[in-house]
Design goal:
Layout (H helix, E strand, L loop, with lengths): L5 H6 L15 H15 L6 H8 L3 H4 L6 H13 L14 H19 L3 H4 L8 H13 L7 H25 L2 H18 L4 H13 L9 H25 L1
Length: 246
């Protein structure tokens, strides 16, 4: 029997064999342990051999469930993303889509932040699993009644997700306190050396420094996250209003 494809594993369409001894492992258990390993150490050290050792089995035992690392990482991504949250239930009327999209963006940000390594896997053309597809479905459905075309809805998801991903990556970098302090110090040195050439940048950062004097490095990313989400939604509001008038 041929090995299951990534799509078959993600969607559970491959029928398990009916004969033979009861499996001692489960695909869900293997994926769950792989997610825990990636959460603790990132993807760099992840291997089928390392995973087998953590589970107390041989590497060949794992291949009975998942044919390779490529398929394993696809399963890990879908498991880590989980199901999307339910849309806000206390919103109605013309602003429902805005509240729903905002809640979606904040929720997927938290999911990325909880599993930083997913940012490395959720890129490019690849098979999508039911959980990841569910996130897309939730966002597209939130735009019902706005008058956007299908491609415009998908582009809106790309725009929101791109902003969220960018901030989630910065959060990951900010967790390294030594690196964060080094970046701040190097930027201060740069401004001391060349501030006269970039007066607008100097003024903007001086104002930001005064506002965030008592905040830890990286805390202002939450403000940047909300600011960007709201500006994207503001743009959609203008587009919807313009089309309504037309």
């Amino acid at each position: 029997m041929s090995s299951p494809t990534t799509v078959e594993l993600l969607w559970g369409t491959r029928q398990p064999p009916r004969r033979g001894p009861k499996p001692s492992l489960t695909l869900g258990g293997i994926v769950g342990e792989a997610v825990a390993l990636a959460d603790a150490e990132g993807l760099a050290t992840l291997s089928m051999q390392r995973l087998a050792e953590r589970l107390g089995y041989t590497k060949m035992s794992l291949y009975r469930y998942v044919p390779g690392k490529e398929q394993l990482m696809a399963l890990m991504l879908d498991a880590a993303m989980g199901e999307p949250p339910e849309p806000p239930g206390d919103v109605s009327g013309p602003v429902r889509w805005r509240e729903a999209l905002r809640a979606w963006a904040l929720a997927i940000f938290e999911r990325y932040r909880a599993h930083q390594w997913t940012l490395e896997l959720a890129v490019g053309a690849r098979p999508m699993g039911p959980n990841e597809m569910g996130w897309l479905e939730a966002a597209v459905t939130a735009m019902d009644g706005m008058g956007l075309t299908g491609p415009e809805r998908l582009d809106t998801v790309v725009l929101l997700n791109g902003h969220v991903r960018s901030l989630a990556q910065q959060v990951g970098a900010a967790r390294d306190t030594d690196l964060a302090e080094q970046v701040v110090r190097q930027f201060a040195e740069t401004m001391d050396a060349a501030a006269d050439r970039y007066p607008a940048v100097k003024a903007a950062f001086a104002e930001e420094a005064a506002r965030a004097a008592n905040r830890a490095f990286g805390d202002d990313l939450g403000d940047a996250l909300s600011f960007g989400i709201d500006r994207i939604l503001d743009g959609l509001t203008v587009l919807v209003a313009r089309r309504a008038k037309a």
